[in-house]
Amino acid sequence: MGVEIAPWQAPPASLLIGTGDLHLWRFRTDISARTADTLRQSLSADECARADRFINPRHQLRFIAARYRLRRTLAGYLKYLPASIVFTNSQQGKPSLGKEHRSDINFNLSHSGDWAVLAVTSGPDVGVDVEEIVVKDNVQPLTDYAFNEVEKTLFSAFPPARKQRGFYRLWTAKEARLKMLGIGLGEMKKEIMPGFGCFFVPAKGYVAAVAVTCQVARIIRYHDAMN
Ligand SMILES: CC(C)(COP(=O)(O)OP(=O)(O)OC[C@H]1O[C@@H](n2cnc3c(N)ncnc32)[C@H](O)[C@@H]1OP(=O)(O)O)[C@@H](O)C(=O)NCCC(=O)NCCS
């Protein structure tokens, strides 16, 4: 689509996002229990309660890592402390910055396996989805459930050897668009024409897609290693 996409790079010390920019972040979420104990001090009481509801300890660690990274990254743009970030959730659960921040920054987070991705814009609504590629033997029923006629036609055009990858591409693009609008997976069959959408690969074995309500001019990708 002619948009300049920078390679993954370390973030600058001072974060700024310009009009027309889309920032994509990737972080690992496979942290130790000890690290999680430290990071959860920056989470809200609600987030800690959510973390405590995970039965699988690995899922709990991933959740804490992703929410901390979300806070820390937004804190970088807003020049706040991670613990001071206030979120508000839409009726369908899409988080955005609380009004007290008086900021145009929009964001969306997704996690799968050991990775999380975060998309940030300076205004337009954004949705992102990452999926770890796991060979599925039920792609056909899933496509019947989730895809509309146009997407089913696109899926059927993939040769057998590329069906799995094709499924993940269509799925992530779809979920990113739903998340851009802040609606749930229950509305999978809806047809949504995004202003802008693209795929990216956050790590080997993962695929991700982002959707933004309008065309972006530039995509900058940041890799924030845990420290
Ligand atoms: C949004 C949704 C598609 C995400 O699915 P998923 O593949 O499990 O998760 P992802 O990792 O891609 O995204 C999760 C993140 O998206 C964000 N999110 C949550 N709800 C969202 C929504 N409706 N739209 C956009 N983003 C949303 C959150 O940041 C969440 O991260 P968190 O779990 O750390 O809070 C799915 O949860 C859904 O269908 N939600 C709608 C539920 C609903 O209808 N609720 C009604 C009343 S609560």
Concise summary:
With 227 residues, the chain is an alpha+beta fold. The protein has six helices and ten strands; from the N terminus they run ββαααβββββαααβββ. It has one domain (20-223): Ribosomal Protein L22, Chain A (Alpha-Beta Complex).
Q: Strand order, biggest sheet?
A: 1-10-2-6-5
What oligomeric state do the depicted chains represent? single chain
In angstroms, what separates the terminal alpha carbons?
A: 35 Å
Structural class: alpha+beta
Number of helices: 6
The outline comes out as: globular
| Mean of residue pLDDT values | 92
Uncertain spans, ≥5 residues at pLDDT below 50? Answer: none
The count of β-strands is 10
Cofactors and ligands present?
A: coenzyme A
CATH superfamily: 4'-phosphopantetheinyl transferase domain
Pfam family, one: ACPS
Domain 4'-phosphopantetheinyl transferase N-terminal: 40-120
Organism: Pelovirga terrestris
GO molecular function, one term: holo-[acyl-carrier-protein] synthase activity
